[in-house]
Write a structure and sequence with these properties.
Length: 523
Amino acid sequence: MNKILKYIGVVFVFIFITSCDEDFKNEVKDFKLNSGEADFTTYVALGNSLTAGFADGALYQSMQKQSYPAILARMMGQNSKEFKQPYMPDDVGGFSDLFQQSGGTSFYGKLKLNLVNGAPTPVPSQPQNSLENSLVNGDFHNLGVPGAKSYHLLAETYGSKQSLAAGKANPYFVRMATEENTSILRDAMKQKPSFFTLWIGNNDVLGYAMSGASGVNQAGNMDASTYATSDLSDPNLVVGAINTILQKLTSSGAKGAVANIPDVTSIPFFTTVPVKPFSVSNSAYSSQIQILNQSFESLNQFFKAVRAEERIVHFSETESSAPIIFDESLADLSAQISQALVAKGIPQAQAALLASIYGQTRQAKEGDYLILTLSSKLGQVNEERKQALMRKGLPENTATQLSVTGLTNPLKDNEVLTSREVEEIKAVTSKINASISNLASNYGLALVDTHAKMNELKRGMRYNGVNYTTSFISGGAFSLDGVHLNGRGYAIVANEFANSINAKFGSNLPMVNPNNFDGTEIP
């Protein structure tokens, strides 16, 4: 190929933005609350980023004010002084010192839309405050901690400054923990909750999914101290942690609501980039199709000879085509490929290089999911890959030809969820959700079916004349990271919690109008 191919990004249907009114406008005006069998006097929320009000890849103040617990607390008649949240110091978020230490790969400020390679792409902001400048003191009612997994709510070093450097603590809990060796659950119990919500377990599967299942499936391993961020938690460990949390929360008679976890394939992070993103309407790509197919002829002949037809690479001249992906479940045929190409007269060094690239690859197919961050990279030359190949002695032109993302340079394991990995994740999600349902029944709690709600949102729903879906940006409910909700999405979740609580305890928590909350910021 002698041209850099451009991927035509998703065409966004931009929505109008309505800012949030903290007073909820008319939703709770002149309303007399009936708590039924519940007691909303002291409401405490436990969970992860979805409870904290995380959005656009960061935790920032204006969205914290629109977290689902903050909305729910207002439904319960509590104001911001009664329901305390650990507010970040600004509307950018992130931690400047941790951002620098990680080389700008984590703890960045909120995402904003910029044009990258012709596609609207979320780009992180530079954080303005360090962790030290973000510390807050007080007893908080919103104990949602971004990044927390189920077992982290019980960990006594999770908010320890001393443990942060060793990776045993979470800066979002460090900034708000009441003491060095407390736990999220212990800080919750200090509030003596009369009512609580618990939404935890998402990260026990989501971290694995977002890494393209490149972590470890920890099935059978009940030692959480050996887990990494991108690992898939053993469902029994997750349920055991949730059971311990609920047992403690209800020990003094508190009532509450517990939510299950959504299907990861319902969120825009996995559904925005189509499995066949290379369109023949893109002339920069379509003009190269014949050359691409010719370059894969020898490799395809080998795949046919060994009856590995599922690995054949072919780009259609009449319809959209899928990228080439690495699939770890495939047998590694590198040695055989190298021998076959040498037998066809291809120089040994070149044959070995091609074999190392395509030894475990195939084109993506229906049921596979490409991650959101690929939207501006597909069809583009990966400069890092190009430079690496040139350091191996390849001429610049050849290195360029072998570095086009998804066309000659296969997508990496952490950029794709294969259909097999999806089924693996769904099986764990199903086990956890079945157990959460049983726990809700055992403890007399309201069950909030966010799994069903997100699937409903994926199909589409309507509030006061406005349509909502899980589509990226145009759907109106998700923020720019494609994982977390925006203000309107959190309002939808708050309504779902309220509905479940009312049904279980005979209360009459009022619904809010999601249209009155912040949507996604469009420049």
